[in-house]
Amino acid sequence: MAGRIAFASLGCAKALVDSEQLIARLRALGYELVPAYEEADLAIVNTCGFINPAIEESLTEIGLALEKTPKVVATGCLGARPEVIRAAHPGVLAVTGPAQFDAVLEAVTRALPPDTDPKTALVPPRVRLTPRHYAYLKIAEGCDNRCSFCIIPKLRGPQVSRPLDEVLREAEGLVRTGTRELIVIAQDTLAYGRERGERGTLFKLLDGLAELGVWVRLLYVYPYPEVEVLVEKMAEGKLLPYLDVPLQHASPRILRAMRRPGDAERYLERIRAWRRSVPELTLRSVFIVGFPGETEEDFELLLDFLEEAELDRVGAFTYSEVEGAAANALPGRVPEEVKEERYHRLMERQAEISARRMRRWVGRTIPVIVDEPGEDGAWIARGPGDAPGVDGVVFLEGEGVRVGERYLAQVEGADTYDLFARVQSPLPASPGGGAK
Question: At 98, is the pLDDT very low, low, confident or very high (cuts 50, 70, 90)?
C-alpha cells in the first residue's frame, strides 16, 4: 500500500461527487482509505465555502484533522480562497480549489509516494459514497448566474457542461451496478448545455435517462421558463413529480436586490399551472431571511406567499455575509436577533403548511424506495417527494423488504414531515424514469 488516507467530505451533493471521483483516483494509486484521522498518514478535507457557517465548519474540520494527522490537504470550494485556510491553519500541507483533482494528487503523491505513476495509472469506476441504490449525477460545473448573495461563480468558475454522451454513459454504468434512482445535479441544472448554445440538451439527457427504467430526480432548478417543459415530462412519467426550485424570496424589491427573477404573483401563477398539469407534484424551495434591506413588510409578504403557495418542502437560512459577495455593500443591514426571530416565524408557519400537505397522502398508495433498516422492525424509505438528506422519509412496515428495492405502499399516517406506510407489493421497473 502507498499509504493510509482519511477523507472528509463537507457541503453539498456536488462536492460529494467530487469526493467520489477523487477517492477513486486515490484507490487506483494504491492508497488505503481509513475511517479515522488517527489511523491515517494523511488526511484530505473537501471543504465548503458557500456561507459563513459552512466556512467555520470547514475550518473546524481542518483543525480536527491537523490535531490527529501529520499531514492535511484542504481542497474544495473554500480552497478557492487559500488565504482564509492558511490564516487559520498555516500548517496545512496544501490547499487546492474545487474539482482540482490533479493538484490534490500531486500534493498527496509528493508527501506519500504511490505504488504506481499517477500520470499512467488507470482510473477505476467512480467510488460511491452514497448507498448503491441511488447516486448523484453531476452534469455541469460552475455557474453563470450573478446572484448578489452568492460567490459560487468565483469559487467554481463559469458553467461548463459535461458532454451529453459522457453523462449518459456514466448513468448507464451506475444503473448496471444497481442504482435505482439517479439524482441529477449542477449548480444550475436547467442551464445544462446553455453556455454552448445548446438550450435543449437537458431535455435530450432526461429522455435518455428515462429509458433506463429508474427514478430520475432533478435538484437545483433555477426558475427559468423551461421549468414548464420539465413539468410536461413529469406528466408523461419520465421524471419524478418533484421540483426543487430555490426561489429565495417573494418580495419583488428584495428579489431585485438579490439579482433574482420573478415576484410572488408570478411565482403563484406558475405554481398553480404546474399543479394543474401534475396534481401529485412535490414542490421544494429555499428562502433567505434577513437579507439587507428586508423590512417587516417584505417578510410578511414572504409569509403570505408561503400560505398561498403551500410548498411541500421548505428550507430557510438567515442571511450571512460572505467575503466577495456583492450584497455585502447593500444598505439596511438586519440585526442578527431580527434575522433569527424571522427565521423561526417562517419555519413555524411552514411546519403548519407541511403538516397539511402531508395529510393529503393518507389513504393513498405511493411508490417508495427503501434506504435502510429502521427501528422496531420498520424500514426507512422515501417516496417521489423525498430527496435523500434534505426531505422527510416514509416509515415503512412490511415483510420481505429489501434495501434498495422499490415497492407500492399504502399510506396509513402522517406527521409534520414524514409518512407512515405499509408495503402492498413490489414495484416492477417501468420503461420510463417517473414514479410508476
Answer: confident
